[in-house]
Amino acid sequence: MLWVALASMTQNPIEASSRPTWAEIDLDALAFNLRSIREKIGPRVKVLAAVKADAYGHGAVLCARRLQREGVDWFGVAIVEEALELRRAGISLPILCFDGFWPGQEGACLQKCITPVIHRLDAAEALNIAARARGAIFPVHVKIDTGMGRLGVRYDEVSEFAASFRRFESLRIEGLMTHFAAADEPDRDEFTRQQIARFRQAAEIFRAHGHQIALEHLANSAATFAYPEAHADMVRPGGALYGLWRDALHPKTKPADLRPVMSFRTRVMLLKRIRRGETLGYGCTFEAPGEMLIAVLPVGYHDGYLRALSNRGRVVVRGKFAPVVGRISMDLTLIDVSAVDGVQVGDMVTLWGSDGEMAIPVEDVAQIAGTLSYEVTCGVSGRVPRIERSAETP
Ligand SMILES: *Cc1c(COP(=O)(O)O)cnc(C)c1O
């Protein structure tokens, strides 16, 4: 029965060549979210799409290709390797590399037009040497640490930095940026305003030292929606593009017009009846209160279905919610389908995302697991194929 059901599934082109556990990526929703953000910021502000961490697990190449066609202005990644992946895939737009580069990667940045963020003079020095050797003037962005306390030139050390940077005759500071620590938190409103003020002051100092800055940018998703005064020349949304907002935007932001991009799905692999008093899974953490119908799903915590959802999560199957029972294991999960009429092997199961009228927001999943939605989508492993869905694709 299993084999008949699985074989019949191959008639559906979406799953034809993949295991029956997949992350469906709604590229039309991604494009819709970009348009929503554009509406919020107006025509003069550019958009850098944060596609680091494989586009928060959504598939960087897939997402970047569509966003490029939709007219996004820049891409942002964390590391040079991620930028190279985009270049190999034919992405031609400017790419900003948030975390800069490691010694030895200067050539790759220059050759592939990857714009690094500079946080230290010694990195600028190394890049300047490499750029001079090529006879190029190379653009970089400089990050100011206005309160995040991670990367960047401290806001109170900007003067020395801006003065010293003058000696790098083969580099040009194209952009100046900072990053907010708590733009989503109403209690930190004062702190965010202070970050903005510190940034403005830093930009003044750079200009006073003769640097002509073409692009000033500060705003992540939360600031894009909650602090219009921080839009400057460009905003850098990540989460909002992927429709992750319930736990990422400032609560004063009215429910944004954003659609979830990822739906994480699998299929019923096996059905079995169990009797009262029998237990399920590792640690025997679930004991059947009566006769039950259990479905085995070919998904586990290695795929990114978090173990913290054991006995707490729920899924959608045939238009009904079905609870997770017992511990989620590495490759398998059990659900209670006693109340799901007509359930069959091969039925599609939605772990999060939408299924017709039903939805399980990934933010809710994150809340149950005690984490942030970003960590949940980032956690979908490489073992899970990303399947694009779009009215545009044939
Ligand atoms: C990840 C990141 C962003 C995007 O943040 P979201 O909260 O996802 O909008 C913007 N800027 C920098 C520097 C980042 O690292």
Automatic annotation (TrEMBL):
It comes from the Bacteria. Belongs to the alanine racemase family. SMART domains: Ala_racemase_C. Pfam families: Ala_racemase_C, Ala_racemase_N. It catalyses: L-alanine = D-alanine. This is Alanine racemase. Its cofactor is pyridoxal 5'-phosphate. Pathway: Amino-acid biosynthesis; D-alanine biosynthesis; D-alanine from L-alanine: step 1/1. Catalyzes the interconversion of L-alanine and D-alanine. May also act on other amino acids. One of its GO terms (molecular function) is alanine racemase activity. Residues 261-389 form the Alanine racemase C-terminal domain. GO terms for cellular component: cytosol. Its EC number is 5.1.1.1. The active site is at K52, Y282. One of its GO terms (biological process) is D-alanine biosynthetic process.
